Amino acid sequence: MPTNPSPFALLENRLKLMRALAALATTAVAGPALFGALAHADGPQPRRGKGHAEDIVLDTLEAFGTLNVDNIVRYFSPDILYQSTGFPDLVGLQAARDYIAPFMSVFSVIDYQVTNVLSQGGIVATERVENYVVSPNSPIGTPGAHMVLPVAGWCEVRRGLIVRWSDYYNQCDVTRQTGIPTGGC
């Protein structure tokens, strides 16, 4: 009987897949046909324009840095499906908002560095490194602790709003670096 892989193994497999897709996207023949854009850590790539799925996702990631939940959820559809490793699926704008809002008081810094973006139509996949600092007034975790978290995620955008947000990361990294219990370790 096959065993279930660990969440870390699943994340590693997703990251390998995203790297393979990124490599494929840069080939002269396959890249333009399969993917709308590819952004690298070595510099920003031109944006596609207001309303493009890729820009909506990148703008949402940037909004996390404002530490203002309203700036983030304005990009979400009323019926969004929000998925984050180790937590139950959340359906609806209010559920996603209620999940994200507490993070705004736990962290004093949230900064996402996108290393790869792959998009086609309304589907946008990102590989990124998320940087956090636990707030001195945080009710949980180790105040001042820094966390560097590799994340792979994908979103689906329809009619200018995100209808699905899915992130994959190692929960043990969160606990180990911040002292914040995640239940996954």
β-sheet strand percentage: 25-35%
Alpha-carbon distance between the termini? 25 Å
Proper CATH architecture? Roll
Helix percentage = 25-40%
**Helix/sheet category:** alpha+beta
The total domain count is: 1
Which parts are unreliable, with pLDDT below 50 for 5 consecutive residues or more?
24-45
Assembly classification: single chain
Query: Can you tell me the CATH topology?
Result: Nuclear Transport Factor 2, Chain: A
CA radius of gyration is 17 Å
**Average pLDDT rating:** 81
List the topology elements:
Elements lengths: L6 H19 L4 H5 L18 H12 L4 H5 L2 E9 L5 E2 L1 H8 L2 H4 E14 L2 E12 L11 E13 L2 E8 L2 H8 L7
Parallel strand pairs: 1-6
Antiparallel strand pairs: 1-2, 3-4, 4-5, 5-6
Identify the notable features of this structure and list them briefly:
single chain, 185 residues, alpha+beta, Nuclear Transport Factor 2, Chain: A, six-stranded mixed beta sheet, 7 helices, 6 strands, 33% helix
Q: How would you characterize the overall build of this protein?
A:
- A 6-stranded mixed sheet has the order 2-1-6-5-4-3.
- It is globular, with a radius of gyration of 17 Å.
- It has helices at 7-25, 30-34, 53-64, 69-73, 93-100, 103-106, 171-178, and strands spanning 76-84, 90-91, 107-120, 123-134, 146-158, 161-168.
- By secondary structure, the chain is an alpha+beta fold.
- The chain has a single domain (7-27, 36-178), classed as Nuclear Transport Factor 2, Chain: A.
